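Pasting as-is:
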Amino acid sequence: MSANQPTLNISQVSHHGWDAFLLSNGLVEAIVVPAVNRIMQFRFSGGHDVFWENRKLDGKLPDAGAERWCNFGGDKAWPSPQSDWPKMTGRDWPPPTGFDAMSAEWETSNDGLTLISPSDPNYGIRVRRQISLESDQPQMTITTEYEKINGGSVRAGVWVITQLRDPQRAFMVHEGGSRFAGGYIQVKPDPPMGLDIREELISLTRARFHEAQIASDASTLLWMDQDSVLRIHFARQSEGDYPNRGSSAVIFTAMDPFPYVELETFGHMQTLEIGDRIQCTNTYTLFRRSESDPFTQARKLLR
């Protein structure tokens, strides 16, 4: 290793009223908050925030008994399919408590930090999320693993939700074609704002006054503002049972007063017995904008 090559540094910090960990390699940094079981931020070192955070909930703790969702922001993991939640938990919202509304334990290593959730009381699943930064790249890797700890068999898949600031554009990328006519399906009744389809690129903007959601079988998602681009890449298996009519990727746009979009990824669903594990790995890479046109910029990154 050269003397000037960045290395991973992990330090304990205070983040908006929470005890947190700052992971940095000198190029990018991530902020992890075990108290809310989330990766709350990812950005260039010293740069502006990329993930969206709900500053009205600064320093608050999750409440497993709450009937309303505590939308902290950041990056989190839920079980798919969402349509199974009512039969598993007795309600269709908010998300299952062990995944979303309980604090996590943590472990650090030379490679990064791991969040370890309690076993969800309904699914009997414990979630481990290993967060690491590449030593010499503006890149974060998160491996999300579900382990069946107790209870009867359950069908579930890994679902990762990343909330990001209001973008100039968000993209789905089809690098090998799509099984869907037009490359996507519309999930919410209201149409997406600024929908634009150009060969392998399907993109949209956030509507201020309604929610929108599209799904596809893509394995790459892009978020783009005026200064930077975040690429989320994951491996979609050619075979497997995926939610949303076979979708592995979703873009959801929230409406005011919540100026964020969600880039969501899905692993295929499996039936889990005690001792079984499933996992998915997402790679998050930051780039500086070098092109003023967002489509030119997206194609440049994909090349």
